Amino acid sequence: MNTNISVTKSINPTDTLILLADRKMLDWATEMLNEEGAGYVKKAAKKDINSVFVPRQKGNLIIQFLNSDQEESLRSEDVRLAGNELLATINHYKIESVVVSNVHPVNMLKDFVEGMALGNYQFIKYFKDKSNRKKCLKSIKVMKEDFSSPQVRELQHIIGGTFHARDLVNEPLSFLTATELANQAKIFGKKYGFKVTVFNKKKIEKLKMGGLLAVNRGSNDPPTFSILEWNPSKVKNKKPIVLVGKGIVYDTGGVSLKPTSNSMDFMKSDMGGAATVIGAMVAIAANKLPLHVVALVPSTDNRPGQNAYVPGDVIEMFSGDTVEVLNTDAEGRLVLADALHFAKKYKPELVLDFATLTGAAARALGPDGISYMGTADNNVCEKMEKSGFNVYERLVRFPLWREYHNQLKSNIADIKNLGGPNAGMITAGKFLEYFTDFPWLHFDIAGSAYLKAADGYRTKEGTGVGVRLVYDFLKNY
User: Fold this and answer.
1) Is residue 42 annotated as part of the catalytic site, yes or no?
2) At which of 126, 145, 164 does a domain end?
3) In Å, what is the CA distance from 104 to each residue of 85, 276, 287?
4) Torsion angle in degrees (nearest 10) through CA of 203, 204, 207, 212
5) Residues 133, 204 within the same domain
6) Is residue 376 domain-resident?
7) Which of 22, 54, 137, 189 has a beta carbon 3.0–4.6 Å from 196's, enabling a disulfide?
8) What is the distance between the alpha carbons of residues 102 and 68, in angstroms, rounded to a whole number?
């Protein structure tokens, strides 16, 4: 963790204190500050200033003005962004520890601390001078009356799951092979208390997971299939909820080599779906959610090696269905299809899959939304969309009309892996639907899993998108 969050009962005179306040309600200032300080704050409140440094002999005092006259999800997001924005000042003045207290009539402390902590993330593992690059803020303390210890622990674990997901996305293939991704899942399982089983290539061949094996044929490294399971003694769901994450640790496009400029520069992020479900499992287990949850991660890299699969090949999937391959860069759906068929053995109550699957989804929504679709009922979709607004990872539902399946009809196999030039995110989803017989939702996170520039508390490169979404949904399931 980059930032430790804890509860405190008192404020030391030397602490840097951040007060969250409403610029229109300043009665507290007269009570807490001397006449000069209260006057200074009241004058600042009349100006278009969001944060104010109040001079004191000991410690720093920062007043953060927050607006509560908004719809709840927008307000929460603006408060997170305010926490992240103030973070720049905190680190600039090399402040290592802050105490955050709420004097605002609306308690917005959780969102503020969340934005500050998420924005303080760094991935500096490979820098020679990493010790000099570390951000200064190490500790955020909150007042007990504003935020309870259980709430703090829950938030810390959610942020921890998000950071683990970001780390996995940011790791290069030189470290994070499919084998190492499975190993990282084992490390997290041991630390947070969920079970991890990893199938090696021999086991995958025995099971005849043809999609995963086909994509792996061009690689020198073996594939893995990881099963993560959280099943506490008392659970609320009768049948498990299954998460599936695309684990393509690097994607060249295979023989259908990616043609566009710079398109491979960030393809270490093509396992963003796997990072999402692994990070979600960390948050779920660490917070001991009373749900039986299973996560499935099929993983390999996709390269144009000597024995690589090629356009025109027909492969037999784990399900027994045959697929005509028209583009080896449409590989994610092949490994996901094997995992979705494997999910049937659990007779799941609901299956959620996450994948950086299509450029079409990224072009449609950019980094500001997630395209999703599936067969789960409207009640589930409404709850999922509500969670999307709660954590501000908003969802846009796309249709899976039967006509889209016509684009996937093959002349020589049961189905082909590529649709037409339009609605690519939908035909990819339609391909996945073919391998399901359970309530299911597919999330295409291609636009939001990896950013080339920071966006508020969503740091540059891996964002950990989906971890907070899944956790919020399952907590309220």
Assistant:
1) no
2) 145
3) 18, 34, 28
4) 180
5) no
6) yes
7) 189
8) 13
| Same domain as 172, residue 140 | no
Distance CA 108, CA 66 (A): 9
Contact 372, 395 (CB under 8 A): yes
Residue 79's Cβ-side half-sphere holds a number of Cα atoms within 13 Å equal to: 28
Which helix (H) or strand (E) segment is 167 a member of?
A: helix 149-170
Q: To the nearest whole percent, how much of the chain has pLDDT over 90?
A: 90
The reply to whether 91 falls in a domain is: yes
In a domain, 268, yes or no: yes
N-terminal to C-terminal alpha carbon distance within the chain: 27
Q: In the structure encoding, which two tokens stand for residue 376, read together? A: 């789960």
Q: Are residues 318 and 192 in the same domain?
A: yes
Q: What is the CATH number of the domain that holds 471?
A: 3.40.630.10
- pTM over 0.85? The answer is yes
User: Quick one: which of 289, 179, 187 has its CA closest to 228?
Assistant: 187
Active-site residue, selected from the candidate residues 166, 333, 416, 458: 333
Q: What is the pLDDT of residues 325-377, one digit of tens each?
A: 999 999 999 999 999 999 999 999 999 999 999 999 999 999 999 999 999 99
What digits encode the pLDDT tens for the residues 55-75?
777 888 999 999 988 899 999
Q: Residue 13 above 90 pLDDT? A: no
Which pLDDT tens digit goes with each residue over 103-156?
Answer: 999 999 999 999 999 999 999 999 999 999 999 999 999 998 889 999 999 999
| Selected catalytic residue, list 42, 195, 258, 394 | 258
356 falls within a domain: yes
Active site residue 258: yes
Give CA separation, 77 vs 72, 154, 252, 283, 424, in Å: 9, 19, 36, 21, 30
Is residue 467 a contact partner of residue 279, using CB atoms and an 8 Å limit?
yes
Q: Which helix (H) or strand (E) holds 184?
A: helix 178-192
CB 398: neighbour CB atoms within 10 A? 21
Q: Which two tokens stand for residue 326?
A: 């028209």
Residue 67: give the domain boundaries: 4-145
